[in-house]
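1st attempt posting a full record on here, be nice pls
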Amino acid sequence: MRGLLTAVIFIMAITICTPIFAEPWTVAVDANLTLTQNAYSDNWAGGETGTISWASNVNTLAEKQLHTMVNNKNTLKLGFGQTYSQDKETKEWSDAVKSTDLIDFESLFRFTLGAIVDPFIGDRIETQFYDDSDPDNGRIINPVHFTESAGIAKVLLKQEKREWTARFGFGLRQHLNRDVLEVATNTRETKITNDGGLIFVTDFTTPLAQERITFTSRLSVFEALFYSESEALVGLPNEDYWKSPDVDWENTFTANITKYLMVNLYTQLLYDKEVDTGMRFKETLSLGLTFKII
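the predicted structure (as tokens):
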């Protein structure tokens, strides 16, 4: 299904989007690098240890009105960071531990027919650079989440630097996890699960404080209607967990102190009952160098 839907997207893009407008792509690239370092003398009291942390994030946008009836918007988020800690007794440095790791690409085709709402079709891929969850088997680009969606979209607000969009429809998801260890047989196999249901996504971006601060918010809700592993869960305490909605709410405040110096506050609220029965929260506050192409 994923491959079929992807093929349909490209076929529609080629057949419908001709002739292509001469206007250029709207491209934006926001890259930043942060570094934190702590050091203490040998006679420092309190038990603190030296640490070095670094993180790099790249957010890109490419959007174009391909045809009077077709708008294409592509977003790519990349993030990677590591932390090194010093043993307070031996003063030796530990191996690097990941602090962030993200690859998130989404391509959205919105058919601008001049109606109250616009039909849309989209693809999204979420993964990470390196999976170290299994100490005996590190894997590159694993696990991988695929999401295909189709439905209706609405541009609620569109200005030069302020935009608010929402879309609602049906989505299919695939989760691929390579070389998973089966303890009972001591063998490894690739596991693939599928589910499908209703999806709602809203994106909002606006400048604040005389355009020195940018606020970006994204809320995504997925309500599964079927799950490929539902029969295997019958009779277990978690047999209905997959029916609970999955929520992902991201908020980012970016303040430009100078042209190349920025402060970034990122928060993420996650709810996936199959992972944990409670809400999960992440916060990152960073000061570092930034580079923008608009």
